[in-house]
Structure to design on (649 residues):
């Protein structure tokens, strides 16, 4: 597939992927230092999906996210400082410390938030799509969820409704092979989640979820279709998480050779190689991007660490409008 | 004043709000032109406003509410109908975990002006899956308002308040109330949340009743009056927010409290109201509180069985007498 996007666009996609990777590595490090309360579900390894999808979207377009949502936020353009501060439970965080790692939202950039109930974001995404249609905007909705969520009833209800109402929703299944510790083959007799789209009468495509350009192109087709009023698409992105499900899960349920194989298919490494081979970015240009991102992440960490915790009685605010 | 039914009052509220605000739309199973809603509340609205704004859905309760949430947080004012209150169990995650919490979890960023309407109540012999009164479930979820009108006037006024507000509202109707007539003003009005109404003044005992039970309580009070007992009947109208002051004020006056609600007794509406009085007005009670509620069974089918588990005029009269005679 040709890298026929403008250099600036490709560089920006790489930057976002690196931002997510370094951000998540830093979150993991901070977790080890006991400054991240609760649990974390890291997006490292799946960067090509969020970045490939969100690079097609405009600011006014919507996304819905999951418990593994830091990457979706960053890809949609969320502020790193406020994202990190939320993960640390600080007052300056996106949700003033009320949401944490699993519930980050930024309504100003169309990031409608992460729900931590598996599959619960699907009908909400469909509702945002209906809203866009009723209001007559050209907004589309990208709905992220995992392969595990495709076994929930909400998956069926949502894809069916999106289909019969021809809604501008792109369903993006991040198939990382494992729902917590449960391998897909133990709970599904289909290999490709995309096949399930045929039950709803709209296209389902399976792409290499570690190939950011492949994800971008599949999303571009889906978004074009949505904006023309032709309805939904299910894009299945085959990918893999670099670490366990949550916290310090060692993921012993994953065979070593499988892990090695997928780590070798690191989406950032692959994208960098292609950018260099295609003479789009030089190694030193890439090194500059990485350095800049490192500085930005360090700033986000400093901001989050130096921010105050909310006052305890703020727990009573924001229940009602 | 003109009289219309509870059903017509609800329909008027929906119609007037749809005329007033183009972001208001309805969704639910069979609410459109082919059926008009299982209880005919939305009859005629699809013909007037079109199928886009009066939207028939597949049988997908979870998605009906979830789609409502997604539309509400992106600028619309959806009113979702769940055909029977029992079926809200299918949509519970979207109601309790999504609609109710989406504002709080995201630090106040979201507004979720979603109304979920549904009929509760027994009395028409349709057994355990179509007869429950589950309003207490929703009182237990912070972030939701719970409205439970007992008259056509309040049905219209509370529904308008629900639609115009910026919070998710769980709107409890009662299937026996739909044909009940009552006075409803013709001018535009809303009924505030968190304001109980005194349906009847009295001095010997207070009955706090909800939904259809308000009518049973009023009938009982009329009988008791002939026997020389003056009974006050209070209708909270919304369970969240609950007008605690009105309850306390009445108990301070009468010193005796009977609570009548159609939901199960354990951890139900009557338990919460009793707890409020226990915390805030215990010293004013001259007798133990009496609760009349469903006796913690599923709703049975056969008429004598069903009638046995629902409070009625006779059981209310007996309860009032028992409370009034306490200590005498």
């Amino acid at each position: 597939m040709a890298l026929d996007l403008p250099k600036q666009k490709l560089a920006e996609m790489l930057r976002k992927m690196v931002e997510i990777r370094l951000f998540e590595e830093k979150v993991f490090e901070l977790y080890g230092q006991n400054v991240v309360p609760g649990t974390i579900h890291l997006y490292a390894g799946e960067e090509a999906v969020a970045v490939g999808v969100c690079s097609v979207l405009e600011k006014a377009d919507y996304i819905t996210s999951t418990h593994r949502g830091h990457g979706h936020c960053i890809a949609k353009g969320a502020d790193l400082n406020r994202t990190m501060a939320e993960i640390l439970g600080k007052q300056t965080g996106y949700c003033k410390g009320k949401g944490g790692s699993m519930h980050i939202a930024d309504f100003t950039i169309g990031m409608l938030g992460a729900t931590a109930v598996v599959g619960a974001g699907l009908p909400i995404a469909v509702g945002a799509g209906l809203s866009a249609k009723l209001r007559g905007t050209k907004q589309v909705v990208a709905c992220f969820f995992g392969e595990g969520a495709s076994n929930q009833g909400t998956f069926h209800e949502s894809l069916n409704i999106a289909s019969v109402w021809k809604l501008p929703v792109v369903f993006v299944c991040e198939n990382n092979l494992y729902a917590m510790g449960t391998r897909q083959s133990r709970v599904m007799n289909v290999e490709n989640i995309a096949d399930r789209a045929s039950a709803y009468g709209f296209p389902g495509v399976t792409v290499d979820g570690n190939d950011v350009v492949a994800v971008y192109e599949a999303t571009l087709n889906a978004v074009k279709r949505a904006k023309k009023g032709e309805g939904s698409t299910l894009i299945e992105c085959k990918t893999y998480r670099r670490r366990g499900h949550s916290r310090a899960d060692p993921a012993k349920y994953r065979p070593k050779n499988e892990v090695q194989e997928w780590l070798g298919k690191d989406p950032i490494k692959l994208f960098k190689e292609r950018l260099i081979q295609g003479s789009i970015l030089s190694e030193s240009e890439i090194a500059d991007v990485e350095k800049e991102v490192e500085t930005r992440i360090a700033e986000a960490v400093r901001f989050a660490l130096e921010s105050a915790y909310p006052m305890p009685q703020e727990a009573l605010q924001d229940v009602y409008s | 004043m003109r009289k219309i039914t509870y059903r017509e009052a609800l329909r008027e509220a929906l119609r007037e709000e749809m005329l007033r605000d183009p972001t208001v739309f309805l969704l639910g199973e069979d609410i459109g032109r082919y059926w008009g809603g299982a209880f005919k509340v939305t009859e005629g609205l699809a013909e007037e406003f079109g199928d886009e704004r009066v939207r028939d859905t597949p049988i997908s309760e979870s998605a009906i509410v979830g789609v409502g949430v997604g539309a509400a947080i992106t600028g619309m004012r959806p009113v979702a109908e769940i055909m029977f209150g029992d079926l809200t169990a299918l949509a519970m995650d979207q109601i309790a975990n999504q609609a109710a919490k989406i504002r709080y979890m995201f630090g106040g960023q979201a507004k979720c002006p979603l109304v979920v309407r549904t009929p509760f109540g027994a009395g028409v012999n349709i057994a355990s899956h179509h007869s429950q009164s589950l309003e207490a479930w929703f009182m237990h979820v912070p972030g939701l308002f719970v409205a439970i009108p007992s008259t056509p006037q309040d049905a219209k006024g509370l529904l308008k308040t629900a639609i115009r507000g910026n919070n998710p509202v769980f709107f409890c109707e009662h299937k026996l109330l739909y044909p009940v007539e009552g006075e409803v003003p013709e001018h535009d009005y809303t009924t505030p949340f968190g304001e109980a109404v005194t349906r009847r003044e009295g001095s010997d005992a207070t009955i706090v009743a909800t939904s259809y039970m308000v009518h049973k309580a009023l009938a009982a009070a009329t009988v008791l009056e002939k026997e020389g007992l003056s009974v006050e009947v209070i209708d909270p109208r919304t369970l969240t927010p609950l007008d605690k002051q009105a309850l306390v004020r009445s108990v301070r006056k009468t010193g005796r409290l009977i609570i009548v609600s159609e939901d199960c007794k354990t951890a139900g509406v009557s338990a919460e109201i009793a707890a409020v009085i226990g915390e805030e007005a215990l010293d004013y009670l001259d007798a133990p509180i009496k609760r009349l509620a469903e006796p913690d069974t599923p709703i049975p089918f056969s008429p004598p069985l069903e009638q046995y588990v629902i409070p009625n005029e006779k059981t209310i009269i007996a309860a009032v007498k028992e409370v009034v005679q306490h200590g005498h």
Notes: Chain B touches chain A at residues 23, 25, 52-53, 57-58, 60, 62-63, 65-76, 78, 93-94, 97-98, 102-112, 142-143, 145, 165-167 (CB under 8 Å).
